[in-house]
Specification:
three-stranded antiparallel β-sheet; 13 strands; Maltose phosphorylase, domain 3
Length: about 210
């Protein structure tokens, strides 16, 4: 993963390349991606599916600092904070672009917006890998990977016609033991049971410091 960060993460242009160099001069034939010009889509550009999987991998490793840094890089809203960035990116900042060019003079330009695959993976990255919310049939589990300065956050989760107001508390940026209470009752399996009783429920998830 360190080699990926050093070679494929382009912090100067806020993109994560799928591969480098592109397939344009070698005799190797990787398939259809060679049909794209060098630096575009899978042929050496940022293919956003892959970029998101990189961030997921750092979250799975517990490297919250790098995971959140890379999320900020590929977050479309952060490509349009200035007029210069807008004229470079050239696509909507409120949807996920499936690819970002890595070829001069178009480096940093987005393409294939409104592509549901990339948007779905971005949603899973944020909700599951980073905020740690996992649905297991009729239960919710939490295994977040949070920035060190986050002390708490809330999720309002609707299960059919029932709403769970969930407060996640991590006062010391802990990643150790987790305790869960639902309507004041501790859940020994550390999960939130989902019952569609059309009531509102109050949940507290507390994450303590890891041992040592």
């Amino acid at each position: 993963m360190k080699a990926v960060d050093q070679r494929l993460v382009r912090r100067d242009h806020a993109l994560i390349q799928l591969l480098d160099p592109p397939f344009d001069k070698s005799n190797l034939n990787p398939g259809y991606i060679k049909g794209y010009i060098p630096g575009v889509r899978e042929n050496g550009g940022q293919y956003t599916h892959g970029a998101i999987w990189v961030v997921m991998a750092f979250a799975a490793l517990g490297d919250s600092q790098r995971a959140w840094e890379l999320l900020a890089m590929i977050n479309p809203i952060n490509h349009t904070r200035s007029l210069e960035e807008v004229t470079t990116y050239k696509v909507e900042p409120y949807v996920v672009a499936a690819d970002v060019y890595a070829l001069t003079p178009h480096t940093g330009r987005g393409g294939w917006t409104w592509y549901t695959g990339s948007a779905a993976w971005m949603y899973r990255l944020i909700v599951e890998s980073l905020l740690g919310l996992r649905l297991d049939v009729d239960k919710l589990r939490f295994a977040p990977c949070l920035p060190v300065d986050w002390k708490e956050f809330k999720i309002h989760y609707r299960y059919r016609e029932t709403v769970y107001h969930i407060a996640i508390l991590c006062p010391h940026a802990g990643n150790g033991e987790t305790s869960v209470t639902v309507d004041g009752v501790e859940q020994h399996d550390k999960t939130i049971p989902l019952i569609d009783d059309r009531q509102e429920h109050s949940v507290e998830v507390r994450i303590s410091d890891a041992p040592g």
